[in-house]
């Protein structure tokens, strides 16, 4: 894959993102500054994605750290335009492994008499109620917080692939081919997962959301 | 790369609005992090970047190949520059050490083989052991003689 092409003319630029890679450095000779800028640009969204997927803030931080380390160790010399897809593929694999480990732990926990589901959402979910005040009135702020909580709840009901696909495409802004690379599936599967995710979100959130 | 909201041609206006609102809310949530979390993310990032610049750099090899002056005071760099070692890829870099270790093991083996086993000590130990057995045999013979002597020497009646 070369370049993460976004569909032109369909939306507005994001408020922040990974935009500071030196174009001359994309061929392979990257400085630490390039990587730093990239990681700085994606770390917040990566953390929230991992938090949505796991429901645990500390687990999410661990997963993001693993993804950062693996990207730096294995793909620092890769084309900088491929970094987003590579990073989110590493993060997706880490989340998948985390879920699998959780299932195994839960199974062993049941055998050993434990009743606590491993993947239960922890108490560090205060971020759902702390949407920043961007000059809104109290009613709008409250409405945004409730909308965010409903959105995250709906996202957590999605299957893993659909959730990942929706977040990568609708939030991270990857195009179909980059999302396919990030998820390790075909482009047709990406389209299917995205369509189903949007349909399920639409039915879960209702017609008047947000 | 710029981030733009993506939507396919088949998306209805309602679905597009849903994606747009989801994106706005998630972006706001990602923007607002606790200072503690921000600090941890920064530390993680720096740790990862340090991992890149740490083990990958071989100062000896780097100085030999690029002629940089950062390691001019390094004795290893000077030795390397004179001998022309460490120009090989990773698995070949340690061959002088491996050769030295192999030579030392070979010399030790030859030395042990030429010296041969110690000849005297086992025989001496055997002699001492035999002497103890003989003493034991004499004792048991005497004990037996003490047991049978009264019966033999008693008058038949």
What does this structure look like?
The complex is a heterodimer of chains A (210) and B (157). Chain A has helices at 32-54, 57-75, 83-111, 138-157, 160-172, 176-183, 187-205. In chain A, helix 1 runs parallel beside helix 3 (83-111), helix 4 (138-157) packs across helix 7 (187-205) and helix 5 packs across helix 6. Chain A starts with 31 loop residues before the first helix and ends in a 5-residue tail after the last helix. Chain A has 210 residues and is an all-alpha fold. In chain B, helix 3 (59-66) crosses helix 4. At the A-B interface, helix 1, helix 2, helix 4, helix 5 and helix 7 of A face helix 1 and helix 2 of B.
| End-to-end Cα distance of chain B | 129 Å
Order of helices and strands of chain B: HHHHHH
Structural class of chain B: mainly alpha
Major sheet of chain B: none
Q: How is the quaternary structure best described?
A: heterodimer
Q: In a nutshell, what does this entry contain?
A:
The complex is a heterodimer of chains A (210) and B (157). Chain A is an all-alpha fold. Chain A is 62% helix and 0% strand.
